[in-house]
User: Which sequence fits this backbone?
């Protein structure tokens, strides 16, 4: 904000100044101007100190990039204290002078509720607005569910509040949520150029008081609204706060404003202490921690050029991800047809981004200009990072790494995208092993948020720091894991899938298991996932370990499916039958195959309840998660929960297996793990770790 001789601090987090006839309230709570006690007290104190006879309007703005990025989520762990945010929004709405909100940066949650309580809203062109409360387990609690429908209508308000997705200032201006956009500048609303625009707007503002609380909700078709709510809740994947949010928004036309915000507040308070809200807050903070903290001060090496070896689905996806992040990318593929297909996939994805308005044509063209498709290994000589994404064959990967080591500099990082192979073996004998690591992406690589950074014995802390910075640039949720079979994610999923196969053998059907786990909150049941991935892939892996099969309980049903040519969606038959639209339907042949298998193995089928299926799967994940910690594969418990939520469709609102385990008493957990060991049979490894 421009300097002013009559600026005075209020409670240290809010400043009041006067520019002619305009009173300026500036929020100053770095780093993101989150709402807390001091900020709320400061706003009320500033309002009380404004001379309404000497001022014609009030400007509410933020120092730094944001007006207010939302509430301080840590406050939700405790009982609310006064002044509450509803008291502040009520004071802004009732203030005798018009209040103009300057929306800048991330103006989310309580920040947007503040702006909605003002009489006019102006915004920087790059601002982002939203009410994302459902994503942290609550609903807007300071009038947002009632004020937003009054300014943008019920359909748009439902979209914003039930989905929690933010919108740009440009879109907000189109729908009337923002009254005027500041002219584009490099500033954030508080720089000199933007501040002059803010003052000019405030001085010419003639709208007077326009409290949204006094507006009627624009009429909307009730049947269409109900259909919209159904779609939004289906997309919300079971977030417990989403149906509550929809219900409260839908009351805007029928209840008085005061009655509706009272109900909104009651629901907010009821949700804030729920287990789902605690789980979502836990993940919110866990995902914002740095994935790697070196023990010694090291600087991440600069990376501007990435070479991806392999132009298949995974390789082209990684290349696309790197291009979108601004890197120069070599796409190396020896097969000319495969290279052409990889480039076509990348181009098609970028074109789709333009079509869906996620990219501009200029951004698309810039990304393609940084892509260098090549069949010549020497062309990667000057690269900073190589990521191999070729076939999962140890000998082929070993040969590639040996060739790469001859061409790239000793400082070039060499990374494998392998899912299961031992990276130590892949890079055995490579000079400077401190630059070798794993970067395990998940398919589709340009969309799945999870990345496992795999630390080998010799991997240096600088290499890991560099990888963590690259992961951040790629917008990935990264975790650092040890080099071991399946790393963290695939090993967890293998334990989960194995337990589901045990239940299939014991009497549950694929349909019942999938339905139970989808009701639990998984994006897709395990047998549908297997069909989608292709049953032949896991079959091939089982065949490679056939000589150790006798050491553990083994379910042969998946093998019988593969022997019958049922490889999943790609063959139209797997655990399910698939039509041309790849929709799964039950197949009596599978039920007969499973029944014959049980008869041959003298297994009397048990009846499973939905709850029993869910508990067994959940316990299998908890046990394996604790084994990972016990063995040192993962150092931070939260990384395991991050992996499952971001890579495997585990419901966010449940927090993850270790979050769940923490809610259990020691006795409950021990008893449950004993029961799991009993039903799992030969070869089951029970964790003995108790502290985590």
Assistant:
């Amino acid at each position: 904000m421009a300097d002013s001789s009559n600026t005075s601090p209020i409670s240290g987090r809010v400043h009041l100044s006067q520019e002619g006839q305009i009173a300026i309230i500036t929020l100053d709570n770095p780093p993101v101007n989150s709402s807390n006690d001091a900020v709320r007290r400061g706003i009320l104190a500033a309002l009380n100190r404004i001379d309404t006879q000497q001022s014609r309007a009030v400007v509410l703005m933020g120092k730094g990039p944001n007006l207010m990025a939302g509430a301080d989520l840590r406050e939700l762990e405790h009982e609310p204290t006064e002044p509450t945010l509803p008291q502040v929004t009520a004071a802004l709405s009732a203030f005798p002078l018009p209040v103009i909100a300057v929306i800048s940066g991330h103006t989310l949650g309580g920040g947007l509720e503040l702006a909605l309580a003002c009489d006019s809203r102006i915004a920087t062109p790059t601002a982002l607005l939203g009410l994302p409360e459902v994503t942290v387990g609550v609903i807007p609690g300071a009038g947002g569910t009632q004020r937003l429908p009054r300014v943008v209508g019920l359909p748009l308000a439902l979209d914003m509040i039930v989905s929690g997705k933010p919108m740009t200032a440009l879109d907000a201006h189109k729908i009337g949520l923002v009254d005027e956009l500041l002219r584009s500048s490099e500033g954030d609303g508080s720089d000199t150029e933007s501040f002059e625009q803010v003052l000019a707007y405030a001085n010419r503002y003639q709208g007077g008081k326009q409290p949204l609380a006094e507006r009627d909700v624009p009429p909307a078709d009730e049947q269409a609204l109900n259909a919209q709510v159904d779609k939004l809740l289906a997309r919300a994947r079971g977030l417990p706060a989403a149906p509550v949010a929809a219900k409260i928004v839908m009351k805007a036309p029928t209840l008085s404003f005061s009655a509706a915000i009272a109900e909104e507040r009651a629901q907010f308070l009821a949700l804030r202490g729920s287990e789902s809200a605690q789980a979502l807050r836990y993940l919110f903070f866990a995902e914002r921690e740095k994935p790697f903290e070196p023990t010694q001060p090291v600087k991440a090496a600069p990376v501007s050029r990435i070479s991806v070896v392999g132009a298949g689905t995974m390789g082209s996806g990684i290349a696309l991800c790197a291009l979108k992040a601004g890197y120069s990318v070599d796409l190396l593929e020896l097969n000319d047809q495969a290279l052409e297909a990889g480039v076509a996939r990348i181009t098609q994805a970028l074109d789709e981004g333009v079509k869906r308005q996620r990219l501009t044509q200029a951004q698309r063209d810039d990304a393609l200009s940084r892509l260098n498709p090549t069949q010549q290994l020497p062309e990667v000589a000057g690269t900073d990072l190589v990521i191999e994404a070729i076939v999962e064959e140890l000998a082929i990967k070993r040969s590639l790494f040996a060739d790469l080591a001859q061409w790239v500099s000793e400082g070039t990082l060499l990374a494998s995208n392998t899912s299961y192979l031992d990276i130590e073996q892949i890079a055995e004998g490579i000079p400077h092993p401190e630059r070798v690591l794993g970067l395990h992406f998940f398919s589709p690589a340009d969309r799945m948020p999870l990345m496992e950074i795999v630390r080998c014995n010799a991997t240096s802390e600088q290499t890991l720091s560099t990888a963590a910075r690259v992961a951040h640039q790629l917008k990935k949720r990264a975790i650092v894991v040890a080099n071991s079979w399946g790393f963290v994610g695939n090993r967890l999923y293998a334990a989960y899938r194995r337990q589901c196969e045990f239940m299939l053998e014991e009497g549950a059907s694929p349909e019942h298991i999938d339905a139970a786990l989808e009701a639990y909150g998984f994006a897709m049941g395990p047998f549908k996932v297997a069909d989608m991935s292709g049953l032949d892939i896991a079959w091939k892996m089982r065949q490679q370990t056939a000589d150790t099969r006798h050491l553990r309980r083994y379910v042969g049903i998946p093998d019988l499916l593969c022997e019958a040519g049922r490889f999943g969606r790609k063959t139209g038959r797997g655990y399910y039958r698939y039509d041309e639209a790849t929709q799964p339907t039950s197949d009596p042949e599978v039920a007969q195959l499973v029944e014959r298998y049980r008869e041959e193995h003298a297994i009397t089928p048990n009846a499973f309840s939905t709850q029993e299926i869910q508990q067994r799967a959940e316990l299998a994940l908890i046990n394996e998660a604790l084994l990972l910690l016990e063995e040192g594969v993962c150092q931070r418990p939260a990384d395991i929960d991050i992996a499952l939520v971001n890579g495997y469709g585990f419901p966010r609102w449940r927090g993850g297996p270790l979050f769940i385990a923490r809610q259990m008493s020691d006795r409950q957990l021990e008893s449950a793990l004993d029961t799991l060991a009993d039903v799992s049979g030969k070869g089951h490894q029970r964790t003995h770790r108790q502290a985590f």
About this structure: The chain has 27 helices and 20 strands. Confidence is low (pLDDT under 50) at residues 1-5.
